[in-house]
Design goal:
It is built from six helices and seven strands; from the N terminus they run H-E-H-E-H-E-H-E-H-E-H-E-E. It is α/β, with parallel strands linked by helices and 187 residues long. It has a single domain, classed as 3-Layer(aba) Sandwich (Rossmann fold), CATH 3.40.50.150. The protein has a seven-stranded mixed beta sheet with strand order 3-2-1-4-5-7-6, with helices on both faces. Strand 2, helix 3 and strand 3 form a beta-alpha-beta unit. Helix 1 crosses helix 2 and helix 5 runs parallel beside helix 6. The relative contact order is 0.16.
Length: 187
């Protein structure tokens, strides 16, 4: 796992997704070396970098050109990127030209989550996996309802990682990146 402190960051681009969250996402994805992965809303590229080390191909999408630039810089910093395609566009537009998806990770949807899930559903291979990370309660509800409508059996896990900081009088736990991870497999 790549360490959080090693990533290039920006105030204008979310991320990277915290290391412990990336580890759970990798585990839940059941990624293999033959998988084609979509990272929709890649931010600084934390998830892109992790999956690029494990999957055959990763296509990362973000509407923010700075996010694409920082993701590219992080890939270069870690010596990754031979199997990565970066697309500066909204998820729905970019996904229209992508087929045979094994794993779709949605970390940002620009208020188009339902549309993005409709498109992914038509392009996801049998036994394909969808992983949605959500902070807003509304996004969690929207994701679960849409996945159920598409005939998936979604599962949700609320994750709150806390790291300790040693003080003179004890250890203070500091919460980082509280997030829901919603997973579903194509039947």
């Amino acid at each position: 796992m790549l360490e959080d402190m090693d990533f290039i960051k920006s105030c204008d681009v979310p991320g990277p997704t915290k290391e412990a969250i990336r580890a759970i996402i990798l585990y839940k994805s059941e990624v293999s070396s033959t998988d084609k992965v979509i990272d929709c809303g890649c931010g600084t590229g934390g998830i892109t970098c992790e999956f690029s080390q494990r999957a055959q191909e990763v296509i990362s999408i973000d509407t923010n050109p700075e996010a694409i630039d920082i993701t590219q810089k992080n890939l270069k910093k870690f010596g990754l990127g031979d199997n990565i395609t970066l697309i500066n566009d909204n998820g729905a537009n970019a996904l229209k030209d992508i087929d045979n998806i094994d794993i779709a990770i949605i970390g940002g949807s620009g208020r188009e989550l339902e549309n993005i899930l409709d498109i992914i559903d038509t392009k996801l291979n049998s036994n394909g996996r969808i992983i949605i990370t959500a902070i807003l309660v509304d996004t969690k509800i929207e994701a679960i309802n849409k996945l159920k409508q598409l005939n998936y059996n979604p599962k949700i896990m609320e994750v709150n990682i806390s790291n300790g900081r040693v003080l003179d009088r004890g250890v203070m736990m500091i919460s980082e990146n509280p997030i829901a991870i919603i997973t579903a497999k194509k039947r």
